């Protein structure tokens, strides 16, 4: 007999069927789910939301992911590579505004020149901020040696989305070649954990071909690999990508938004003390989308501090929020209204990670 949402929410351990039922909750039923995830979140990670200033270092990418606007074959965007000075200017902004953490994200270039460049940049950031900034990298798959080198130069977190933990689905949304290999990506995640990074992963929600079972498996995958942080968001079609042809098969954008909130809530119930990001893609769909994600269980926000002139060239999906000036929106007031506050000056490291290391 199918369990009720109330019954499932009282359980200690959730089965795959339970997770599926929660992910299929109606709008009314979801209120119970969100109340539970908020209770767990407040108990285990408190009411703070931590900031990570997001710097989109470069949109030059060696990969050709079938969903992504900065894929190598997209000739419609102009490619950029921030200069070190531009990066450092953004870092200064974050430092001055008490962010305490940065995310450096970039297209994927698995080569020596990129590894060296980022290494030198990390050294300069460390000097500039007297080592008082925690740094997350999100720059794709690299060798263990490169990860170690970056780690020695002050990068302490790494976000590498698996995109989908289902190999078959992964293969449908990526070209079929060595550069886009599911096992290689999995291995990179394992290496990141082994080398001592606070390790994050994530997936896209509402992809073509994706089923609710796939999403339940994604959550169980995150639990199984004992991840420290998660950044997952709705898939948003981009017209210059091959997957755009399948846009008529997608759930509505509102359904993808709602499903993402439920994914965050269930993940918070499954993994009580990890860091979960309220991703920008949510804001692309709904004004105050990130605040809703915070209510559902997210505890990290990543304001974009990339110099404004480059932001239109990092259009990984449609309607990505593009402030016209260099104005950076931290939703302090909105968060206060719903009982949360920004943890200015705090690293907000993953509690899960700290506990993992005490063991
Ligand atoms: N390539 C780097 C890596 O994988 O570490 C990071 C840059 S990549 C542009 C950042 C993330 O954007 C991807 O991992 C993917 O999940 C997300 N993304 C790309 N295209 C998207 C789309 N159309 N809708 C939603 N998210 C998308």
Low-confidence stretches: none
**Span between N and C termini?**
39 Å
Coarse morphology: globular
Q: Major sheet: size, sense and barrel closure?
A: 10 strands, parallel
Helix content: 40-55%
Q: How many strand units? A: 12
Which hetero compounds are present in the coordinates? S-adenosylmethionine
Approximately what portion of the residues adopt beta-strand conformation? Answer: 5-15%
Mean pLDDT: 94
Count of separate DSSP helical elements: 14
Using only C-alpha atoms, the radius of gyration works out to 19 Å
Structural classification? alpha/beta
Query: Numbering strands along the chain, what is their spatial order in the largest sheet?
Result: 2-3-4-5-6-8-10-11-1-12
**What is the N-to-C order of secondary-structure elements (H for helix, E for strand)?**
HHHEEHEHEHEHHEEHEEHEHHEHEH
């Amino acid at each position: 007999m199918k369990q009720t949402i109330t019954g499932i929410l009282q359980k200690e351990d959730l089965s795959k069927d339970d997770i599926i039922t929660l992910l299929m909750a109606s709008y009314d039923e979801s209120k119970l789910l969100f109340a539970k995830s908020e209770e767990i979140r407040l108990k285990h990670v408190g009411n703070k939301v931590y900031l990570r200033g997001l710097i989109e270092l470069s949109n030059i990418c060696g990969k050709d992911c079938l969903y992504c606007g900065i894929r190598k074959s997209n000739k419609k965007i102009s490619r950029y590579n921030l200069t070190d000075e531009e990066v450092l200017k953004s870092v200064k902004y974050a430092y001055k505004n008490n962010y305490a953490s940065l995310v450096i994200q970039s297209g994927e270039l698995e080569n020596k020149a990129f590894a060296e460049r980022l290494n030198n940049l990390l050294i300069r950031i460390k000097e500039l901020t007297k080592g008082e900034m925690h740094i997350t990298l999100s720059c794709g798959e690299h060798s263990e040696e490169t990860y170690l080198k970056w780690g020695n130069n002050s990068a302490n977190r790494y976000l590498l989305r698996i995109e989908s933990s289902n190999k078959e689905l992964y293969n449908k949304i990526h070209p079929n070649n060595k550069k886009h290999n599911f096992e290689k990506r999995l291995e990179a995640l394992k290496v990141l954990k082994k080398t001592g990074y606070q390790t994050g992963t994530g997936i896209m929600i509402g992809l073509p071909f994706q089923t609710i079972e796939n999403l339940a498996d994604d959550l169980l995958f995150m639990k199984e690999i004992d991840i420290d942080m998660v950044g997952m968001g709705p898939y948003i079609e981009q017209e210059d990508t091959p997957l755009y042809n399948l846009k008529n098969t997608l759930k509505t954008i509102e359904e993808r938004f709602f499903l993402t909130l439920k994914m965050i809530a269930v993940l918070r119930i499954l993994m009580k003390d990890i860091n979960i990001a309220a991703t920008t893609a949510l804001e692309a769909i709904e004004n105050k989308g990130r605040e809703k994600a915070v209510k559902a269980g997210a505890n990290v926000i990543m304001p974009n501090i990339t110099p404004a002139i480059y932001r239109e060239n990092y259009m990984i999906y449609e309607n990505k929020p593009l402030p016209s000036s260099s104005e950076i929106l931290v939703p302090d007031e909105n968060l206060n209204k719903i009982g949360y506050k920004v943890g200015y000056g705090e690293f907000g490291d993953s509690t899960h990670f700290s506990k993992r290391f005490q063991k």
